[in-house]
Specification:
DNA polymerase, domain 1; Gyrase A, domain 2; four-stranded antiparallel sheet; alpha+beta; about 30% helix; 3 domains; RNA Polymerase Alpha Subunit, Chain A, domain 2
């Protein structure tokens, strides 16, 4: 008699290892992955790294003495076209997510580099050795104003667009990524070799480290896939709203809020929250309505009373179920129902 046993292999969770790292290059290995998953993970990571990582770039410059890109500047060896190409290569690390200005102003003979640019604390130039211009006379002067913005990818220069005369737009290379490669290799878990290793190589312009770039790309993908992870909850909520809408007669659900004869203050609160029909009130919990600006307990009490008067306070709706105490006392006949009536009564009293 032969006994057979089944050995269950425990697959360890995938781990990521930093194989090599410099300020501009990173090599990472992710393993073990089930067969087919290395490409499934590697391809979207590569696309997000190349297309969705934000960076900073110069979007336009204004050069004293240059009205257009075909101008020349006295005692400056490079013409304006060459200067624009050089400014486009300036790489900027942004410490704040807002636009700003930088300025370059040099006089006299010598070589001008990116280190001569005067940058505010929000911006840091990571390639200060970059050659910008050569001045060949003691009388030479070069003054440039630069606009820096944040973005992603590559944005070509656009003429016009509200730019003033003398402003020269630049092609903006926002992406801090230079290149991204990935490879799929075979690996083993115990005696089983049917697993994969994802090897990812990332090159940046040093405005961001490869590790940070990879972390940002992972966060972008996580935020996207979170939608799918919670699709069941979304479908359930949509089903509840659809069920509610079907349980209420269409003419009642679509009744305009103006027909409830609410005070101007309460009506304006609903309109600002884009609530235009009765159904949109009934499908909300009371706590949601109380979060609307200037919509407080008095507005809620007024609304409940109006719904009671018109026999529209449907008991099975989220709104009715969420009323504190289950009901609101009937209004005192001696008291006006809203502020406008109070003011009118005061005016009539001698």
């Amino acid at each position: 008699m032969t006994l057979s046993t089944t050995v269950e292999i425990q697959i360890p969770r995938p781990e990521i290892k930093v194989v090599e790292q410099t300020p501009s290059y990173g090599k990472f290995a992710i393993e073990p992955l089930e067969r087919g998953y290395a490409m499934t993970v590697g391809n979207p990571l590569r696309r997000v790294l190349l297309n969705s990582i934000r960076g900073a770039a110069i979007t336009w410059v204004k050069i004293d003495g240059a009205m257009h890109e075909y101008s020349t500047i006295p005692h400056v060896k490079e013409d304006v076209t060459d200067l624009l190409l050089n400014f486009k290569r300036v790489r900027i690390r942004s410490h704040a997510d807002r636009p700003g200005k930088m300025r370059l102003e040099v006089q006299g003979e010598g070589v001008v580099t990116a280190a001569d640019i005067q940058a505010p604390p929000d911006f840091e130039i990571v390639n200060p050795e970059l050659h910008l211009a050569t001045l060949d006379s003691p009388e030479a002067r070069l003054a440039v104003e630069m606009n820096v913005e944040q973005g992603k990818g590559y944005v070509p220069a656009t003429q016009g667009d509200g730019l003033s005369i003398g402003v020269l737009p630049l092609d903006a290379i926002f992406s801090p990524m230079r290149r991204v490669n990935y490879a799929v290799e075979r690996t083993r878990v115990g005696q089983v070799t049917d697993y994969e290793r994802l090897v990812l190589e990332v090159w940046t312009d040093e405005t961001i480290s490869p590790v940070e770039a990879l972390a940002r790309s992972g966060k972008i993908l996580m935020d996207l896939f979170y939608l799918f992870a919670n699709v069941g909850k979304v479908v359930e909520e949509q089903g509840q709203k659809l069920s509610l809408a079907l349980s209420i007669p269409a003419d009642v659900y679509n009744m305009a809020v103006e027909r409830l004869e609410l005070s101007t203050r309460t009506l304006n609160c609903l309109k600002r929250a884009h609530i235009n029909c009765l159904g949109e009130i009934l499908e909300k919990d009371v706590s949601e309505l109380l979060k609307i600006r200037n919509f407080g307990e008095k507005s809620l009490e007024e609304m409940v009373r109006r719904l009671q008067e018109k026999e529209l306070l449907l008991s099975e709706t989220p709104f009715a179920k969420g009323i504190p105490g289950g009901e609101v006392p009937a209004p005192n006949a001696a008291q006006p129902a809203n502020q406008e009536e109070q003011e009118a009564e005061q005016e009539e009293t001698p």
